[in-house]
């Protein structure tokens, strides 16, 4: 497969996941601020910007301004709208590899953004974020239903899985870093679409240990950090089934990306839940570093050499 096509598919996976998860995170914060009248708006907005990796904005910080930067800024690939636009642009370069249904989904989503934004002004941003989640879910379903399980599929799922690890870690950081304005575990679980599955798994026992254990370590829930790391590791293994050049496949792993992902996965798998909760901030920061390192390693190994794609290109004024 051409490195150009592989890179486009990888970033389609990342950008679609980024749009969906950013919409989830923003929706969580807005619901929390509406439900809790004691939340300080400036503190909550500053916390959200920190979690999303955005530099400080000029004062005053308001919900509307943060939504504009993280949700509606077309020039920022880390915003919801910017990520959808970037996914479509990458799909244009890989039209011969993705299915017609996938292209039509991304293209119609992009063309539907102006109308969705008008509805958001009329009905509120929650309706807009719900629309984004639904469109991303349609794209995920079409991807699963219409792509052959070849190298192209592996690169797209690899990108989606790496982004999911990063965004789930950022979502958990809203609980760990936001001080008095943190969302409850209930809100976090619902934002991941995990509430009903969590109830069935733990019989309604909602506490710090069970919630963190579920979102970090559950093997069966696809949005858990462990499940996404395992999926990414599986994609990398299938891309290098016999090891790298000069290797027989009998010892070690073939690529730096596999080593980085493997260390992160085992670092979660063999630690007790109580230990993870006690060191949650460091664990989440380590996961975000892991995603950045994996992205760099994958780019060096498989893609043409270009400057790394950063979350946000400097501070936003």
Automatic annotation (TrEMBL):
Top-level taxonomic group: Bacteria
By its UniProt entry, which Pfam families does this protein fall under?
Alpha-E (PF04168)
Q: Which residues form the DUF403 domain?
A: 1-303
InterPro entries from the entry?
A: ATP-dep_Glu-Cys_Ligase-2, DUF403
Record field: transmembrane: none
Tell me the protein's name. Answer: Alpha-E domain-containing protein
- Could you tell me which species this protein originates from? Plantactinospora alkalitolerans
Which lineage?
Bacteria, Bacillati, Actinomycetota, Actinomycetes, Micromonosporales
């Amino acid at each position: 497969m051409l490195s150009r096509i592989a890179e486009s598919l990888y970033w389609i996976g990342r950008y679609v996941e980024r749009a969906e998860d950013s919409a989830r995170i923003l929706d969580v914060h807005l619901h929390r601020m509406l439900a809790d009248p004691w939340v300080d708006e400036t503190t909550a907005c500053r916390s959200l910007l920190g979690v999303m990796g955005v530099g400080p904005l000029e004062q005053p910080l308001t919900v509307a301004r943060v939504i504009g930067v993280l949700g509606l800024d077309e020039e920022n690939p880390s915003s919801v709208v910017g990520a959808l636009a970037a996914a479509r642009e990458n799909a244009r370069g890989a039209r011969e590899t993705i299915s017609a249904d996938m292209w039509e989904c991304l293209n119609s989503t992009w063309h539907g953004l102006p109308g969705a934004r008008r509805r958001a002004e009329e009905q509120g941003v929650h309706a807009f974020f719900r629309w984004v989640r639904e469109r991303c879910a349609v794209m995920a379903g079409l991807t699963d239903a219409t792509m052959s399980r070849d190298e192209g599929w592996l690169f797209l799922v690899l990108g989606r899985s790496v982004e999911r690890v990063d965004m789930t870690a950022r979502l958990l950081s809203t609980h760990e870093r936001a001080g008095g304005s943190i969302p409850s575990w209930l809100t976090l679980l619902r934002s991941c679409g995990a509430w009903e599955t969590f109830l069935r798994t733990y019989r309604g026992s909602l506490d710090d240990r069970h919630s963190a254990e579920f979102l970090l370590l559950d093997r069966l829930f696809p949005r858990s950090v462990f499940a996404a790391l395992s999926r990414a590791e599986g994609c990398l293994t299938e891309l290098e089934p016999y090891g790298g050049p000069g290797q027989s496949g009998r010892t070690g792993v073939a690529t730096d990306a596999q080593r980085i992902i493997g260390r992160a996965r085992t670092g979660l798998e063999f630690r007790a839940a109580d230990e993870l909760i006690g060191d949650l901030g460091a664990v989440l920061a380590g996961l975000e570093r892991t995603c950045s390192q994996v992205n760099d390693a994958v780019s060096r190994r498989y893609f043409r050499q270009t400057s790394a794609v950063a979350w946000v290109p400097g501070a936003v004024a």
